[in-house]
Hints:
This protein is an all-alpha fold. It has a domain at 18-47. The chain has helices spanning 21-33, 36-43. It starts with 20 loop residues before the first helix and ends with a helix. The relative contact order is 0.12.
Amino acid sequence: MNNYLPKVANTNVETIVPAPAKTLDKFYELAMKGNLKGIIKKAKFLE
């Protein structure tokens, strides 16, 4: 066990909600095709 890790306070923590599985699949598909423009276009809808 690693006892050298710093302890972090749990203040100001936000919950990260992942995108739906369908959206993540589409990102994967676009990435595998090398379609950076498609990724950027799709990412704008996540903001």
